[in-house]
Hints:
This protein has helices at 196-203, 230-241, 248-255, 265-273, 286-294, 309-315, 361-367; strands at residues 7-11, 31-33, 43-45, 51-53, 59-63, 67-72, 74-82, 87-97, 110-115, 126-127, 139-142, 145-148, 153-164, 173-182, 209-210, 277-283, 299-305, 327-337, 341-345, 356-360, 372-380, 391-392, 394-397, 403-407, 410-412, 429-436, 451-453, 470-476, 481-486. By secondary structure, the chain is mainly beta. It folds into 3 domains: 7-182, Jelly Rolls, CATH 2.60.120; 196-380, Cathepsin B, Chain A; 391-486, no CATH class. Strands 1, 2, 3, 4, 7, 10, 11, 12 and 14 form a 9-stranded mixed β-sheet that branches. Strands 15, 16, 17, 18, 19, 20 and 21 form a 7-stranded antiparallel β-sheet that branches.
Amino acid sequence: MKMRYNLIEFRGGKAWTAGTDTLAEVPPDGAVGFGSLAESCGIRRDENGYLTLAEGVLDGRYLSPVVEAPLFEQLVQTWNADIPEGTWVEARARVCFACENAAGRWSGWGSWGTWSPYIERRNHNGPVPNPDDPACPGIHMDCDIMAVDSEPAGAFQLQVLLHREAADIPSPVLRRTCAALRNRKLPEIPTYTGDEAAVEALNDWHDTVVLPSPAASQMIRDPEIGGSICNPTTMTVLLAYRGVQVLPEEMAMTTVDLVEGFGNWSYVTAGLGTYGFRAIGRFGDLNLLRREIREGRTVGVSVHYAKTPEDAEKRHLPYLENAPCNTPGHIMTVRGFGPDTVYVCDSAAPDDAAAHRCYRLDQFLEAWSGRFCYLCDRTADESRPTAPGFELAELDRDGDGCCFLRRKGVEFSVQPVDIQDKEWTPGRMVLMARLAEQAVSGAPKMAANDRFVYPKPEENGHFALPEGTLSVYCISNTGLRLRADITDGAKQI
């Protein structure tokens, strides 16, 4: 199987149950079915054409066909899967080298780490061992990127492991897995955005098209992590535009990589997919973004920029006029284009109202030099979204007026240490309270636009909150989700 462009998507669904194993060439859009399962083990297709563990099986493996590709240096694998509690998936890939002294030799299997909203998630940074051919040119994992050490590759193969802890637990469901290719030294691999007429129309862009997307600032979120959660905040903006309300802290705790933090492209794509959407992390070009906007879909992009020419020179960053800060790495939402402008929701803005911004297109393209983006369909797959749901708890006040949580009738103590170091330590959590609904003047609204506070618990697990009607959320980075509501006149002890 050969691909000419920079993306392939192995996918399930009722229309994609066969055919991949006989394709000589990958279609330009990259979409192919999972194909034959003859080389896989322990898995089957479900009624929707997605991949699950066979009955009674705890561990299975999907193995893709070998894909021949233009010479490439980097590969990012992303996936969408339904992940019930007690299950996980692990994405893996290997490459075949194309250089004269190593042609036809395969690397070891690089891993993106086991992934589930309910477990400790860690990427596998570092060299990838190759016990079968230790003299072969090497590859290494750089968080979400598999990269060759020196010699380019000309083919690859994907693998996804599925696991459940017990046979009576529902199986994880693999809906798709994708490989996106990029070069840094070699010529870039092209992005497919349509036939010749479609490309000509995108090149000849004279319109102003701005989608009615809400926006949210990360800078007013949980004080410990607010400055770092551009990636999950952008995902919640994408979801809100598609009618699904998720708090930035909720997405952050679902997708945090306890090695990298909140910046893991693959984990965040997987988190977006747990809400049932077809979500893909990939490399692209300006016409890809224009096509998505033209078809009514907002896009997440990875950028870096400086807010002044002086900062740009000092920090070796592209200058972006009207930018809210300096950042060596950042994610924001593209919501529209004019002939020479790009309209965004930039979560680095100081507040929600300031997050809707307009940048010069030429400067934006310099800021978007890595060309990574998140694509997300407007409607969900025919599947069962498995993002962690909120368990209803109780919120009481003690004799001093401080609040505390009860879970299943038992006091649930949140200690001061529990809300610290949540980016790196498993089991840590966000404690937050929604005080009131709050509109953003003249703009579409999302749940994150309401007014929130972040109480600090005392040693006894109690915390101060104002009186009135409010909702408290307790969100851990290993899947615990509690919500409790309280009104004036709540019982005291």
